[in-house]
Write a structure and sequence with these properties.
It contains 4 helices and 7 strands. It is an alpha/beta fold.
Length: 138
């Protein structure tokens, strides 16, 4: 991913600071949360129960982003098998965040579709245009 967009992308480690122009990915089998303290934004990577059958859980991440960043967040949901993330994306949008979902041309699965159906995603974007769409919203 790091080589495909203008963002610096890496697998998160507990306590990593998050700054503009960067994106972190949850490590497998861990929960990822956004936190703020001491004048900085950082990630918390921790063990915990699966949520909606998943770990990492997009529901846990989106809830922490809503609480931490609110209207300053940009959220994108890509391909996924379940409906997880859709309700939390709606909560993010209601808090003022900008929200995108991967378009259905590639997606034969439910996550982005559920986010569009419940009003959580404000629009769909083709996968190959997602990085630039996110950057424009930033």
């Amino acid at each position: 991913i790091n080589g495909l967009c203008d963002l610096e992308v890496w697998e998160a480690k507990d306590g990593d600071e998050v700054k503009p122009g960067q994106a972190v990915v949850a490590p497998g089998n861990y929960l990822l949360l956004l936190r703020r303290g001491g004048g900085r934004s950082y990630v918390q990577v921790k063990q915990g129960p699966a949520v909606s059958r998943y770990r990492p859980s997009v529901d846990v991440l989106f809830q922490s982003v809503t609480e931490t960043a609110g209207k300053n967040a940009v959220d994108a949901i890509l391909t996924g098998m379940g409906a997880d993330g859709a309700a939390r994306m709606l909560a993010m949008r209601q808090a003022g965040a900008r929200t995108l979902a991967q378009d259905e041309a590639f997606v034969g699965v439910r996550q982005p579709q559920e986010a569009m159906n419940n009003g959580g995603a404000e629009r769909t974007v083709p996968l190959d245009q997602m990085a630039s769409a996110i950057l424009k919203l930033l």
